Amino acid sequence: MTDASQQHISKRARQAAGQPISELMGMALSNPNIISLAAGFVDNQSLPTEITRNAAAKVLADGDGSQVALQYGSNHGDNQLRSEILRQSIAMNQDTAGEPVKYNTKLDQVFITPGSNQLLFLLADTMLDPGDIVLCASPSYFVFIGAIRNIGGQTYGVATDQCGIIPESLEAALQQLDAEGNLSKVKAIYTVPYFDNPGGTTLPAARGKQILEIAKRWSRKQKIYVIADEAYRMLRYQGDDTPSIHHWDPELQHTIVVGTFSKSFSPGIRVGWGFIPRELIGPLGDQKSNIDFGAPLLAQKIMATVLDDGCWLSHVEKLRVVYSERRNAMLNALSEHLEGIEGCYWHKANGGLCIWLTLPKHINTGMHGDFIKSAVEAGVIYVPGQYCFASQGEPANHSTIRLTFGVQSAERIEEGVRILSEQVKGWQ
Ligand SMILES: Cc1ncc(COP(=O)(O)O)c(C=O)c1O
Fold first, then answer.
1. How many domains would you assign to the chain?
2. Whose CA is nearest to atom 12 of ligand 1?
3. Of the candidates 266, 285, 312, which is a domain's last residue?
4. 112 lines ligand 1 (CB under 6 A)
5. How does pLDDT run across 64-79, given as a tens digit for each residue?
6. Fewest CB within 10 A of the end CB: N or C in the chain?
7. Is-above-0.90 flag for pTM?
8. Are residues 304 and 318 in the same domain?
9. Percent of the chain at pLDDT exceeding 70
10. What's the farthest any 2 CA atoms get from each other in the chain?
11. 267 pocket-lining for ligand 1 (C-beta < 6 Å)
């Protein structure tokens, strides 16, 4: 029953209350000296201030151009930006695959949003009716899990290993859902193929291809799409890039690619994009026109200029140096303090901004437990893993933690991990 004081609030808004992010921010702010290994922010010092200043000056320099940039734009995004994104992305896939593929993805399939979160939300809102199901990695990106829940959809967690979603487990999950008579509710498989948030895992190209084949094969009642969220693709610190799932589906029949410049350039500019199967463009555009009928054009023009000037990739190179040092600091500190302790393990992410840490079973890392309280008192905060699990399928593991290394210096990361490890040892 609804509390009388809440009756002016919609059910959806009430469901959205108590998001982990706001609670964690509150905890971090209550102690200014706390080392936050929770925040999904990027490094302040390496934000591209100079490049952005120059690009903005260029955009605003000529009369007509600046008037265009300060107007409303089109619902689907600025054409210069859309064609740059498509061109660069296809070139990257061709380079890494080592085999030319004829892409049939056209400019009208490129969809720009103010950050990829909006696109993920729009996709869920466009594809799902209440009760519909999205299969996802266990663990998975908690903001998308929350968005699906908020519109009445369900998430179904699939087992993962060091390489992300296990295809055999995905197959078994679909068999199970079919046996329960729920196959017609399955609308999508969501994956973060490069350096997953939170798992840190990367899907090998062959596995991405397998997941796509499974989606096609099980599209018996209706299409099951693969949503490939490539938010961290550019932040690679080890190994070679691998082609996107888009490469195996150049016509975009089943694949929806989601990208963003938030991690590889600036979240303040907040430009995201999608490569969208033809039949979803109209419905997605209709939903978007209810929200903002177009991402801010000034940000898009600035980003298009940065790409056109060739400044993005050189900036990414600098970010790789900064973040790989921090990732190494975190991995070294974890080895130094937690290696050999039974039940403690983590994955050596080759890129991205997160490390997923599993602690012994008797430690509950949850938001309302004693462990997090004592960690915060000792001076460190993390994201409890509990938020990263789907509502069905693989059960939640309450002894897990998402650590991020994007914001703190290498020294603070080492100190944060040391403090956290002391807590773990004290809990034995
Ligand atoms: C996996 C993943 N997808 C999407 C996003 C959304 O980023 P933005 O909305 O800034 O583009 C994030 C942000 O942390 C993320 O981690």
1. 2
2. 231
3. 312
4. no
5. 889 999 999 999 999 9
6. N
7. yes
8. no
9. 97
10. 67
11. yes
